[in-house]
Amino acid sequence: NDKSAHAGGTVFEAVLRGFRLDLHCDPAKQPPGDVCNSNGMWPVQLGLSIAPCQLQHGGTAGQQLACNVSLEMTRAWTPTHGGGKAFNYRLDFAVYVYVTVLVGSADSLYTARAVQPVHAQGGNRQRAAQGHGLFPLPPPAEAGRTSAAAALSTAAPVLVGLTGFRFTLLHTPPFDIDGRYLERLHFQASNATRVSNGVQYDWTMMYYSPATVVPVHVAYDLWPVLLSFPAPDALVRQNGHVNGTVCIDDSTFKCEHKGLRQTANDLVKFAINV
């Protein structure tokens, strides 16, 4: 495992909390004779990751934490030419990345990143790829340096978070175009549990398309990070979740016919008992 960054006895780590992707097709920016079919895209690859943070001197502002974020995004038309929908040759996008930064003393926080991402393959018409991962116990020399590292073998609360994810649609003969419709996207690391040789967790990855979409092979990558909180008063809750609902009208579908209001955003309260 890659250890979390340390500076003067302080531990810090950045965890991916969420992201937002806004797409827009401007008719004025298309080649002559081409039109916008919508503000959407047929994705081929989407990856988002946070590099290990570095502590920098910020002059009069003091020390600053720099956490570089990487985005990979590729799109294409579909083998069926979008079912009659034109390809947007120019598509503008804006990406918002939501990050939680954890900072604590070496006695209250221990984190470790996986050396390699979790990798799996599947298909856009298959069940989610699922499995188990393991963060092994730190070497004895490291565990002896801080009570936080040693806490991995005690009852200190542990969680597993994400620092990145990626899906890539693989070229799948006989189809010569790689873009596909996206119906469901799922990346998750959960259920951190102590075992005899470290901390085990579950992972899930899925890119799923509607039944009318031709098959394509999919490669997945997931970057997990281990979080341990050995402070006596640490309060950790695992696996909580909430459900939100969004709905957008189109030419043939109306949200109100399903008893829903039209909205692209939903705000849901998340209750934590303390």
Could you give the topology of this structure?
Elements: E1 2-3, E2 5-7, E3 10-24, E4 43-50, E5 54-57, E6 63-66, E7 69-75, E8 92-105, E9 110-113, E10 118-123, E11 129-136, H1 140-145, H2 147-150, E12 158-170, E13 184-195, E14 198-208, E15 217-228
Antiparallel strand pairs: 1-9, 2-3, 3-8, 4-7, 4-12, 5-6, 9-15, 10-15, 11-14, 12-15, 13-14
Task: Give a written overview of the molecule.
There is one protein chain. Helices cover 4% and strands 45% of the residues. The chain is built from two helices and 15 strands. The strands form four sheets. Strands 1, 4, 7, 9, 10, 12 and 15 form a seven-stranded antiparallel beta sheet that branches. A three-stranded antiparallel beta sheet has the order 2-3-8, with no helix packed on it. Strands 11-14-13 form a three-stranded antiparallel beta sheet, with no helix packed on it. The longest helix is centred in the middle third of the chain and has 6 residues, at 140-145. The model has no long low-confidence stretch (mean pLDDT 86).
Task: Give the fraction of residues assigned to helices.
Answer: under 10%
Number of helices: 2
Largest sheet: 7 strands, antiparallel
Structural classification: mainly beta
Multimer state: single chain
Number of strands: 15
Uncertain residue ranges? none
Run of helices and strands: EEEEEEEEEEEHHEEEE
